[in-house]
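Changelog note: in this version the structure field was regenerated for every chain. One regenerated record is shown below for reference.
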Amino acid sequence: MNRNESSEDYLEAILRIRSERGSCRNVDIAERLGVSKASVTKALGNLARRGLAEVVGRDVRLTDEGGRLAEATLAKHRFFERLLAESGVDAETASAEACRMEHCLSEESFRKLADRLGRGR
């Protein structure tokens, strides 16, 4: 997994956790992604330096730019997950494979594919 894929996974996890719970802590991210709290701390430092996330007290928040990137990543994930599930792939496999697929296409290629398949976002 490259740095960009990892960053997108962290951003997507923060977005999902915040939408489910209203707040997000390092430990929540570690549990969601199956990584150590030390890995989360390091990743959050990288995201903060890139202006994508910030930690206020114990609450992890996305910046506007981080939120946009997280939303785009989540949209790709849901698109591929739905496409795979509709093709007969079981839900667990569809989710795992959608996670890998969401990183493979540029935003432009993804939009064209989604438009071509008539599913948009």
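Spot check on this record: The CA atoms of residues 14 and 106 lie 22 Å apart. The mean pLDDT is 91.
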